[in-house]
């Protein structure tokens, strides 16, 4: 509210509905109505929890994310329906607080849309923490008549059903755009097949003077994506050139460890026929992560095989949500993996893993970095390691590289 006052913006609290060109009717909590007249209307009503057929939310034992963040006690058993971002975030929180958590997911993987390698590693780490996953499965109904809830679960493709008893069920099957009761149909605003408001590249709907941003339009349902769109549409309405780069919208899963991603996944690049190089660096080889005793996970950098431009970055590990910003900045300016690799990073920091992952995908330096890493972990000198791994010509090449980087000193001796 202070920001609104500071920028001389009037806030009107109530339920709004478009009733005509440049007119919004607002019904306040005391039942009164008023009509606001304006030149432009921006629809930014966000999203609501997606409902699941056969599972009726009561807000107490069968809950959504709205109630799951404020349960009055730690449930002995928690069944999470949906292994997406929200399900894993809240499920892992309650697991760390002591609940026995089972996650049921319709697909054969967790975190749909994220890099597969990162998703697999995430599942392994969450299972290590005690979470149980039932993939390629679906909840077909819930019996809430007894002291405990009984959920019927069967294979996604059909088959024998099993019953899972639990104390609380969290429905986390996604979100849907909030467009009901806004007067959109009456105003003639077009929606797509998923109930999202259709807009052009400038956030304009098919009705002059009506715009839309955020969860109600196509794209990831993320607060920072909506924020950027809000800035862009404000600039457009002010006669400027607002723009959002949808190829550089980072996403973060706030589990422990965190998971973060920006740009294309390895699977997306392969499907599009884009040749790319992959560079990875594990946090087990990062001094800061080891000192923090949070050495799980890795950094993965994807770069175009032809021009070295970074196309995607994926991280699982401590501070992933902060580290991903470096990749986003680099990608926004069309930077290459070599650009990232040549930037001096403070030591010891987690961010060094970003640089090392960039180094690892570079044809020669990547091998050099791997050599150093292997030598450090195994207390093996460079000469001995070269004897183990390469022929005479390759050894001569690495002797030159080592001499350049380390003055010929054998690391680990």
Structure description:
By secondary structure, this protein is an alpha/beta fold. It contains 14 helices and 20 strands. The strands form six sheets. It has a five-stranded parallel sheet. A five-stranded antiparallel sheet has the order 16-17-20-19-18, sandwiched between helices. The N and C termini lie far apart (62 Å). The relative contact order is 0.09. Residues 385-391 and 401-413 have low confidence and may be disordered.
List the keywords.
single chain, about 25% strand, alpha/beta, five-stranded antiparallel beta sheet, about 425 residues, five-stranded parallel beta sheet
Distance between the termini: 62 Å
Strand order of the largest sheet: 6-13-7-8-9
Contiguous uncertain segments of 5+ residues: 385-391, 401-413
Strand content: 15-25%
Mean pLDDT: 90
Shape, per Cα inertia axes: globular
Major beta-sheet overview:
5 strands, parallel
Number of strands: 20
Rounded to the nearest angstrom, the radius of gyration is: 26 Å
How many helices? The count is 14
Structural class: alpha/beta
Helical content band: 25-40%
